[in-house]
Request: fold
Amino acid sequence: MSKTKIEWTEVTWNPITGCTKVSEGCRHCYAETMSNRLKAMGTPKYTNGFRLSLHEEALCEPFQWKQPTTVFVCSMSDIFHENVPFSFIDRIMNVIEQTPQHKYQILTKRVERMADYFSSKDIPPNIWTGVTVENADVKGRIDILRSIQSPLRFLSCEPLLGDLGILNLEKIGWVIVGGESGVQARPMKKVWVENLWNQCQAKNVPFFFKQWGTWGEDGQKRNKKENGNLLNGVIVQSIPNLD
Reply:
């Protein structure tokens, strides 16, 4: 188990690490930066840095967690990366099925491959499936996600890099929004966030505003901690409850 500072989950589980870039949201990948830092620190799991790596020894970790836990799967990779064999994903799914007390969140930018994988398999009832939607160019991911028979489908609009316009939120059960962090972070405009918030309120979809990131609500660049996570003066961090 790896405790995490990611506000919308409890722990991360990384039987896969490393990835390659597929869209604008990947440009300043936090996982790449962290992986290279861990490699430099001599952390055995990150000997390969950010090269895609499968970790069989990590598969058994969820069996050791006694309390029901919300788990972000492959926070340091993409489980549906084209170089991850379906046979290895099968092994991950087997662990998920054998630990029904935990809730697993799977987020991908490769939703086509996720749809292909689940086209002939039932999704375990303790899985939430999500896609990253960082700008309008990749809104098509939502339609593919909607076709997957998942207990809950969610959108991660982080880093939010542009106005997403009107979204079709049919069969979408959660929307997460956040700004980019780091020296090279790109700004997120308040009007983009409010647009999504308003649409979620209108459709009664839980909305989770994670953070402003490096650029604040006022459009000024500063430390992300100073910018915080208030939206119009309040914390908006709703999480679906399917119990």
